[in-house]
Design brief:
This protein has helices at about 30-35, 50-65, 155-165, and strands at about 10-15, 15-25, 75-85, 90-105, 105-120, 125-135. The chain has one domain (about 10-155): Hotdog Thioesterase (Thiol Ester Dehydrase, Chain A, Roll), CATH 3.10.129. It is of the alpha+beta class. A six-stranded antiparallel sheet has the order 1-2-4-5-6-3.
């Protein structure tokens, strides 16, 4: 995976739950492009909601992949529900809390909550919920063959797991 939308794993309950954090910085180009300045309005840099969804997909995808020690290629199959009620701007942090609802050979469904930390306030506040479905593409019904290497969980994710103290999960 080329783009990482989570910075750290902060909590892990095997086969059940994973919590990750993303710190939103003014140095990230995507926050400036979201609402650029116009002739009438100043710029309003913020984290695009599509990237917040991707951060939850990465968090929940790591959780789903960890169940079988990342031997399966896990891909996002469906976004079931997204409800993001507040914006996230530079200087704030996002916490993704993903839980597995169902898991079988074909894939998994997850539910997750999103919280925002405004460092001036000092507390996490809920801002949304995202429900996702993942597929184990090695067990797909199309009959297509996929490369042996795990193109989803590459070295960046392994580094993320190691820095969280989850070396044993890497398989």
């Amino acid at each position: 995976m080329r783009w990482m939308w989570i910075d750290a794993i902060t909590d892990y309950e095997p086969n059940k739950r994973l919590v990750a954090v993303k710190n939103v910085s003014l140095s990230e180009e995507h926050v400036h492009d979201h609402f650029a300045a116009t002739a009438d309005e100043p710029a309003l840099p913020m984290m695009p909601n599509s990237l917040i969804v991707e951060g939850m997909a990465q968090t929940a995808g790591v959780l789903v992949g960890s169940v079988n020690a990342f031997r399966e290629k896990v891909v996002l199959a469906k976004i079931v529900r997204v409800n993001i009620e507040q914006d996230v701007v530079p200087g704030q942090s996002i916490r993704y809390d993903a839980t597995i609802e169902r898991m079988d050979d074909a894939g998994a469904s997850t539910t997750g909550t999103i919280e925002r930390l405004d460092h001036r306030e000092g507390s996490w506040r809920p801002i949304g919920r995202i429900d996702l479905i993942f597929s184990h593409i090695d067990n797909n019904m199309s009959g297509l063959e996929f490369p042996e290497h795990n193109f989803v969980f590459g070295e960046n994710f392994r580094t993320l797991l190691r820095t969280a103290g989850l070396d044993s999960v890497c398989g």
